[in-house]
Each structure stands twice: as C-alpha cells, then as structure tokens.
Amino acid sequence: MPASQPAWWLPPHAACAKYHSGLKGPADPTFTQTFTSVYTDKSLMVPWYAVLGNHDYGELDSKQLRLCSSPTFSSCPAGCCYSPSWQTNMSHLDWRWNAHQGAWRRSFGDGLLDIVFVDTTPFLTKSPVCSQQGGISSQDQAGQAKAVQALMRNSTARWKVVVGHHPVRSYGEHCKGGKGGDCVDMQWLRPIMAEHQAAAYFSGHEHDLQLIKSKATASPPDPVYYVVSGAGSDIRDHDFSNW
Q1: Model-level pTM?
Q2: CATH for the stretch 29-228
C-alpha cells in the first residue's frame, strides 16, 4: 500500500439487507437473529456503520402495497408495519449498530478520514411511496442533497469517502449494464463528490463485486473510485462483456 494512503480501513456496510422487507418494530427478533447472533467473532466486536437500503424501507410488490396501505402508521394492517425507523434504533439491542436516516458523517484516524453516509432510497423514482412512519413520503430528498454537500464542504479530512446503498456507477443488473437503471437517479451525487475530491464511493444493491475508475482522459473528469459490494446477498449471473 502506498505510503500516502491510510494504513487501515474500516469497511462500511452498504450491501443488501439481511432480510427482505425491513423490521416490524423496535423489538423485532429478526435483528438479533441476523446480526447479533451471526457476527460473534471477537474481531467483530467493534462499531458497525450501516446505510439504509431499499429492503429497509419495506420493499413490497404492488399487490402487497395495496393491501398494506393505511392512513397512519399506527393503524397499518397486521404484518405490514415495516418501517426504516426501526432499523436506525437498534443500538439498544446491540451496542455496535450505528445507522441513521438522511446524511451523516463520522471521522476516523484523528480526522485523517471522513466518511459521509447517505440514505439513497428516497432518491430512486421507482421506490414504493408508503404512508409508513419514516417512509419515502416523509423524506426530504432536496434537503438531504444539501446536507451531503455541506458535510463534504465542511470536511477538513485528508481522505473523504461516501457510502450509500445504491450505486452511482455500475455494470450490474440494477444499472442495466452501465446504461441506465437506478444509477440514473443517483447522478446528482457525482458532481458533489468530484467537487469536494471524494476518494471513493462504496455501494451495494448489485449482487456482485465491482471496482470502477474512469480513464484519465475522461470528459468530464471523474477522479472517484466506485466500489460495489454485494456481500451478504444472493448470487446473480452477470454479463460484463460490454466492459
């Protein structure tokens, strides 16, 4: 590793959720069953930093959404009370868990590295709009974009990294082989990272591993390394022949 780079790294969790449709409440045993009881090695007894993904928002198909619709969260039908808010309030079950909605930042290495975490699901046009507590309809996309800009601008760290569940660049299924898909909705983040000299963007969503870097001759220039991690997800067959 070059001497100019930090000699340590804290891997953020940006891959697909451990369950299909989020949590049903602050005491949902699914969290303990899929996190606390699984990651038990001594080396894993450190703070974990997670970003919310589409499954944390209770991603349901159109039929399920119709059956689960309700005017208020408190009156939603049994079995439909999924909310991303539960995912952000699990530190009472496991001290290691750190997750928030919106945009937030943590510093590491005495200020050498700043990581900006982004809740990307509200930016996807195809995201289900539910009336659940903390759901898409209660999010402020424009406000979060401004918050990301401010967090990057105010950072004095030597290294800046951004983490979000959905990729900005990808050649996988969700981004249609690099030609569209969910990546289109995430392009708002690209100029912000370039302006504030982010070193890398880590994402999940695609069920594969990718490292993408533009050529030095690219126009406009894009200095960011894009890392896609499919850890913890089902395996998919992809055709990367268009690379």
Answers
A1: 0.82
A2: 3.60.21.10
